[in-house]
Amino acid sequence: MGKPKNVANEIDAHVGARLRLRRLLLGISQEKLGDALGLTFQQIQKYERGANRVGASRLYDMSRVLDVPVAYFFDDMPDETAAVMSTRLPNGSRAIGESPLGSDVLLNRETTELVRAYYSITDAEVRRRALDFLRTVSESASINRGRRGEDATPESVPEEV
Prior knowledge:
This protein is mainly alpha-helical. Helix content is about 55%, strand content about 0%. Residues about 90-100 and about 150-160 have low confidence and may be disordered.
């Protein structure tokens, strides 16, 4: 079975989008990231667009500079791309989990601001409690929407005082 022509490009684009997301969350420029990796900002641009494929050693270097595990670059991969990857695994097992969110939300400015604010909390216990609070609010809103039979959109939940 031959590999579809555009699969590698989709995977490269996903890895590049995750690279860009992490760089933006850390608030560093393409030039600064390139300097840290011994690359030009143009090379970083090509990686972020998925125009150039990131090799294993380069991916490892990026993970260290950006302080994320290598697996980070493959998180939230769209089902269509991951499905093609899973055909390469024995027994049809999947290597990548499904994301409940679309990849667009990860590139949203509000998401970036939220993550920056979260990581600006220096006390690890306070950060954990903030995360627990957000999870509780999210679960509560989901349960309330289910009881009312409403859509899962924030606009459908009336503002409570």
